[in-house]
Specification:
This protein is an alpha/beta fold and about 220 residues long. Helix content is about 45%, strand content about 15%.
Length: about 220
């Protein structure tokens, strides 16, 4: 943990995998005859498609990037791919999410979500898990036609929440997301979920722990500004 960081006023959470379990997506792939092991490949190619496009000044929706990735990695037709895409509307929080968010809110920290995924996915998942009251707002960078880890996404999120970047934290199970947040001036917090270890080629996260609960404890333990 970096001693230079202070306790954030706002904690922004990545959505897919970090908060919401992608099990319905895996089930949808199985239903159309694909192995559940296809999902990590498609998800990674979705990120590659969107982030690479953004890097050269292009942009596409997460939904369209995911559909393109499915077309590249499988023989599914448009109708079958559409069915898999609809499964994003069935996502629900991991079991450790509700107690973690509740602990933050009870500790006086504002909680938001920050995704480059489709608007409505986070809201539906939080509602399904009964934890919408714990989240102040859900932010999708589709609004500004940008993908994380672009600096502008994190700065836009901080501005939207009315805080300086240094007063916001980004919690994610993806090292590239935490890296982007830290480079934008936010406090980065990482824990293993989809990744077993943090990428060694990136700068170390400001905060890291073995699980989500540990990350929350570490953020709350940071000294007040």
């Amino acid at each position: 943990m970096s001693p230079a960081r202070t306790r954030p006023e706002v904690d922004a959470f990545d959505v897919n995998e970090t908060l919401l379990d992608l099990a319905p997506d895996r089930a949808a792939l199985i239903e159309v005859g694909e192995p559940d092991t296809l999902l990590p490949t498609v998800f990674a190619r979705t990120l590659l498609t969107g982030i690479a496009g953004a890097a050269v000044g292009s942009w596409c929706r997460f939904r369209d990037a995911f559909d393109a990735a499915l077309a590249q990695e499988s023989d599914l037709g448009p109708h079958e791919r559409a069915g898999v895409l609809e499964s994003f509307g069935e996502l629900a929080p991991h079991p450790d999410v509700e107690p973690a968010l509740r602990r933050l809110v009870e500790g006086g920290v504002r909680v938001v979500t920050l995704t480059h995924g489709s608007p409505g996915v986070a809201e539906a998942g939080l509602e399904r898990g009964g934890i919408s009251p714990l989240v102040e707002r859900s932010l999708s960078s589709e609004v500004i036609r940008a993908w994380k880890p672009a600096r502008e996404v994190y700065l836009w999120a901080a501005g939207t929440c009315g805080v300086e970047p240094g007063r916001m934290a980004l919690v994610a199970a993806h090292g590239w997301d935490v890296l982007g947040a830290q480079r934008a001036g936010l406090t980065g917090a990482w824990f293993p979920r989809s990744e077993r270890v943090h990428p060694a080629v990136y700068e170390a996260p400001h905060v890291t722990a073995a699980d989500l609960a540990g990350v929350v404890d570490a953020l709350l333990a940071l000294p007040a500004a």
